């Protein structure tokens, strides 16, 4: 495990509001959470979004990364913003980071929302192959397939401009950052640690998610004591972006109880 990286972040909403940190998926930057910002700020929450190391405007240390590295970056971000404890909302890789914090830094977590994620996402060879592809050919080579996992075909057809926005988002991720993050997923296994998570937890799955199907959410919800599982219809992997009203309503309902 290397030292933490000072990641790029954006904070919005009242400085004294309960802090909610949004952690994104592999191949994204903080803009993937655009639909959630205004509704939460209007409810008085302080919304902090950030670019995972190797993504967006954050530094790109050489890989491989480990989930412990990403968790350490998030803890450093909380310190930077003067946040003792935050509600953490993570999707995919961001959810994995949130689970790691829930296990290893429970005092820093007010509650968890784990979206479209997995505690162990194999097979490892797939992630090694994707890292190799990206290092050799750049992230543009996986952008189309990425959008195909993030959005349902119907949504892509109905909203081509949204699909193009996300395609460009993936293609602009530095190749080393994307590949090194694939290696973090390749080696991650949090399944046996799930019972250690004490934070109030909401698990949200997309009914049409090809990347982390509902069974992965069921493992997480079954492993974390008293976790609640919600499955959102018409959502693929980037469910918070494809079905923002439903995801945001679930997140807000969870936060209002946990705040």
From TrEMBL:
Keywords in alphabetical order: Hydrolase
AB hydrolase-1 domain segment(s): 18-243
InterPro entries: AB_hydrolase_1, AB_hydrolase_fold, AB_hydrolase_sf, PcaD/CatD
SUPFAM superfamilies assigned to the protein according to its UniProt record, in alphabetical order: alpha/beta-Hydrolases (SSF53474)
Tree of life domain: Bacteria
GO cellular component, as recorded: membrane
One BP term from GO: beta-ketoadipate pathway
Key word Nucleotide-binding present: no
Listed Pfam families: Abhydrolase_1 (PF00561)
Molecular function per GO: 3-oxoadipate enol-lactonase activity
UniProt-recorded name of the protein: 3-oxoadipate enol-lactonase
Species assigned in the record: Amycolatopsis alba DSM 44262
Gene that specifies this protein: pcaD
């Amino acid at each position: 495990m290397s030292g933490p990286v000072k990641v790029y972040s954006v904070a919005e909403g009242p400085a004294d509001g309960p802090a909610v940190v949004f952690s994104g998926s592999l191949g994204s930057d903080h803009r993937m959470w655009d639909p959630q910002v205004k509704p939460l700020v209007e409810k008085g929450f302080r919304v902090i979004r950030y670019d995972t190391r190797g993504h967006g405007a954050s530094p790109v240390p050489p890989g491989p990364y480990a989930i412990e590295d990403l968790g350490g970056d998030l803890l450093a971000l909380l310190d930077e913003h003067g946040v003792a404890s935050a509600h953490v909302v993570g999707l995919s890789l961001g959810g994995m980071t949130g689970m790691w914090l829930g296990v290893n830094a429970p005092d820093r977590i007010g509650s968890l929302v784990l979206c479209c994620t997995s505690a162990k996402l194999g097979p490892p060879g797939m992630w090694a192959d994707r890292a190799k592809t990206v290092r050799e050919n750049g992230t543009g080579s996986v952008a189309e397939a990425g959008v195909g996992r993030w959005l349902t075909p119907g949504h892509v057809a109905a909203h081509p401009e949204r699909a193009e926005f996300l395609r460009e988002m993936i293609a602009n991720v530095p190749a080393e950052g994307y590949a090194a993050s694939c290696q973090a997923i390749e080696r991650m296994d949090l399944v046996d640690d799930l019972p250690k998570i004490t934070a109030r937890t909401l698990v949200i799955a997309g009914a049409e998610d090809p990347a982390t199907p509902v069974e992965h959410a069921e493992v997480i919800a079954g492993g974390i004591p008293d976790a609640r599982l919600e499955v959102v219809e018409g959502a693929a992997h980037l469910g918070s972006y494809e079905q923002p009203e439903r995801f945001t309503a679930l997140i807000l309902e969870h936060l209002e109880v946990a705040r």
